Amino acid sequence: MEGSIHYTFAGFSLESGTGRLCYNGEARQTTGKVADFLLLLVANPGEVVTKDQILDSLWPDQFVSEASISRLVSDTRQLLNTDEPENEFIQTVRGKGFRFVAPVAIKENTVTQPSPSANSRPRWKLYGGVVFLAALAFVAVLAVARWWQSPGSYVVEADQRIVVLPVWVQTGDIQDSWAEFGIMSMFTQQLREYPDIQIADVDSVLSGLNALPYNANASPADKFELICSALGCQALVIPELKVLKGKPVLTYRIVQATMQSPEFIFNHASVMESARQMLTHAVGQLVPVMQERLELKPLYSDNQRANMQFAMGVSALYHGDYVSAQQSLRLAIQQQDDFFWARAYLADVLYRTGNYQGAELAVTALTEQASSARAELYLGNLTANILYARGQLKDSIDASDPLIVAASTASEYELQGNLLMNTGSSYTALGETAEAIDYLQQAITVYSQYELTLREGQARLNLGNALFLSEPNSAESTQQYERAAAIFRQFQAKAYLAYALSALAQQKRHLGRLKEASALISEVANLYAQAGDEEGLLFVKIEQADIAVLQDDLAGALALATEAFEQAGSQYTYVRSYSSAMMALIYLAQDNPQPVPALLAEQDKYEWFDPRANFSLLKASYAHCTGKLKQALAEAQAVKAELGEQWSDAHQAYLTIYQQDAQTGSRRSVDYLKGQVIDGI
């Protein structure tokens, strides 16, 4: 005796035991091979079924041509024809096989079947056990907030990393937009209360999605292939908010490399209540059987109004609407004063808006309320970020170091890698390249071990920068830039690829390989154009100006820098500051100091600073060019005191000139772009 598997999709029903196919209750005649092929597809919805799998399952130990497969696919498509163009069930994946793209609901029937004869075998065995396993792994579709729940986790194992995607809102109502990140965050953070499962944090997921060519409309299998290979996960949770039969429903499915769950549906008048039920159900699927189930509150708070305001605040935060985020989070706190995560996210908003003092005070007040290791890590990491943003790099390093160990202990491996990478970047900014290289190499080891490939590319890019600063001619620096670029190309992470190629172009410029540098910059320009990155295109102009300077084309360099300056306007302040500094240097090199004061004012306006010799000593150079020799010396000495260990031989070349001219009381002609005397004494 054996049960059968009942599949339903788009008005169709299909029985595994008999191969019986019905559409809207009416039976459709199927042949043996067509039924077998259709069962093979619907048992693996969203997954590519290869031609080899088809041959092994349907024609074992037989030789058949590809024409047989083509006819089979054609016959199956004809069988599923509903005269509705939107019902495309079987997708051809060129060079690989075929994919069943319609959502499939699966349940195990209890109907008793006759025992197979000695000459027959259970149908599931034709597919290497795929259908049989599906009967164990999948639960029934939920209806109107009721479900049959699996007694344990059959889909995700304890050591697997899970990524929860933003909720794909398809209701057409802008008022539902809060669910995109609001429910995603609640889903993620509550599951993170279970220390034995790996849940990627929201910031990590969103930064990854922003870098990747992510398409919410892609098939679950395509989403899995792109996201999990880049972000290092073994399971993908795909939630959606859509309208079914005129009512909003919240759904999710779990996708892995070899299987996917049915679409679990939650239908309640309140989307928040549907979210609570979805979370409860997900715990049953995602948390290991042996793990004690936590008695989760209704999302974060006992107060549903507080939960709603919190969700709206989080969504506004990740949409970049910080004013609305603050308003909603403060309203959540008014509803429930001890709402820890509402206060934590409010501190994050304050940090992101530059209110570092307010953020620091908020974190300090929350420290004693942190009730889990992950909450403590969240606050600690935010503290390190605040210190870094305030320019307190040493303090930021000191705050990060104990967190690195704590993150490893809590199995927060991506956070561990991030802390290592950020600490390495801090040491790079301090000019302490040996320490920077050590931390960045550790970060690469962690990212590589846990297959966090996109993060590994970022760490290699930062390592290339540290190596370049340590030894500009380093072949290892070039290697790291190229390996980072290869990773970014693999995932079509265009913005990251542009950064890597820009860094590589900088190195080529330093080595005097200007043609190679120009070619790389042209590729960077194409990437920024494809991404619609206006600020990036303006930086390209500045990089082109750098190359023009090295080619002694000061007029061309000035034209490019001026164009970048004017197009930056008040929107791109960093570009405006950078280009104004370059323009000032070119004017000084042309012995034309008159336009420089206005450009120096731009620097002061935006508090922009570049530690490189010619940029950091710009005010000293202006004073020298205008004959204020003692002032030039004083300005240069002030920069030396500010830079400390970052003071280099290049800086010293400028200082030596200004010292000598201050002693003699006469100004020599100087190339202020290169720190070289043109006319000797």
Provide an overview of this structure.
The chain is an alpha+beta fold and 681 residues long. Among the domains are: 5-137, Winged helix-like DNA-binding domain superfamily/Winged helix DNA-binding domain (Arc Repressor Mutant, subunit A, Orthogonal Bundle); 161-299, TolB, N-terminal domain (Rossmann fold, 3-Layer(aba) Sandwich), CATH 3.40.50; 619-681, no CATH class. Helix 23 runs antiparallel to helix 24 and helix 27 (629-643) runs antiparallel to helix 28. The longest helix is centred in the last third of the chain and has 18 residues, at 453-470.
Number of helices: 28
Mean pLDDT: 84
Strand content: 5-15%
Unreliable parts: 109-154
SSE class: alpha+beta
Identify the CATH class of the domain at 161-299: Alpha Beta
Secondary structure elements and their pairing?
Elements: E1 5-9, E2 12-15, E3 21-23, E4 26-28, H1 32-42, E5 48-50, H2 51-58, H3 66-79, E6 90-93, E7 97-100, E8 105-108, H4 130-137, E9 161-164, E10 168-169, H5 179-191, E11 198-199, H6 202-211, H7 220-231, E12 235-244, E13 247-255, E14 264-266, H8 271-286, H9 304-318, H10 322-335, H11 340-352, H12 356-366, H13 373-389, H14 393-409, H15 413-429, H16 433-449, H17 453-470, H18 475-490, H19 494-510, H20 514-531, H21 534-550, H22 554-568, H23 573-589, H24 596-606, H25 613-616, H26 618-625, H27 629-643, H28 649-664, E15 670-671, E16 676-677
Parallel strand pairs: 9-11, 9-12, 10-12
Antiparallel strand pairs: 1-2, 1-8, 2-3, 3-4, 5-7, 6-7, 12-13, 13-14, 15-16
Helix pairs in contact: 1-3, 5-8, 5-9, 9-10, 10-11, 11-12, 11-13, 12-13, 13-14, 14-15, 15-16, 15-17, 16-17, 17-18, 17-19, 18-19, 19-20, 20-21, 21-22, 21-23, 22-23, 23-24, 23-26, 26-27, 27-28
